Amino acid sequence: MKPYPTTQLERRLLSDGAEFVIGLDEVGKGAWAGPLVIGAAVLSREVIESEDGAQRLGGARDSKQISEKKREAMFDVVASGCVGWSIGAASHQECDVLGMNEAQRLAARRALAALGNNVEVSRATAIIDGRWDFVGPYVARVETMVKADASVLSVAAASVLAKVSRDRLMRELSLEHPHWSFATNKGYPCPKHRQGLVEHGVSAIHRVSWAFMDNLGLSSTHAPR
Question: What is the reported pTM?
């Protein structure tokens, strides 16, 4: 197992004058169906200043390194270790119309707005997983870091909160759209998802502009079911 993420970067940013540090991470970018979701997490000072922050959050780490069952079990613990957290989403239609980059900006803006009065976003420093700054206009400072979700605890927390929230939504949507196995694949590519598309076409929550439509021989104008 890889080392737990730490709060070293959060502590450095706070000592450099940051009033708030917001970790952000996205979920659903590579999915064929459902929304793109951005999680935002502002850890409490108690968690940030502790030497065992990840353990205080139930063993939080990059959500991709944790089973679905364990993510669900730690969700409330992670949320309780934040002074503020939120989820922002861009719908499948918005992903189609705007393209992924602008949809990601939109979801991030919604996540930051949803943090509410506990966090003054315009005076905050954001830590983002990856190299691309998609929140710059909305915060005072941005730190980008490749694999931040694996090494920075606030980003790992955002990853867990976003992943569990989106997974729950996709399980609910699977009841309305049973042919594509969304309860298990959460809208991502897999053999059962492909089989559902071949046999039933697209659902009402598929991203019909994605390349998989042409690759599977489906028309982007296929009537949703």
Answer: 0.93
Q: Does 139 share its domain with 95? A: yes
Tell me: do 121 and 182 sit in the same domain: no
Element holding 16 (H helix, E strand): none
Residues 22 and 131 in one domain: yes
Mean per-residue pLDDT for 118-143?
94
Residues 62, 148 within the same domain: yes
What SS3 state is found at 10? helix
DSSP-assigned letters across all residues of 67-112: -HHHHHHHHHHHHHTEEEEEEEEE-HHHHHHH-HHHHHHHHHHHHH
How far is residue 156's CA from residue 164's CA, in Å, rounded to a whole number? 12
At 133, which CATH number?
Answer: 3.30.420.10
Residue 154 main-chain phi, psi, to 5 deg: -65, -35
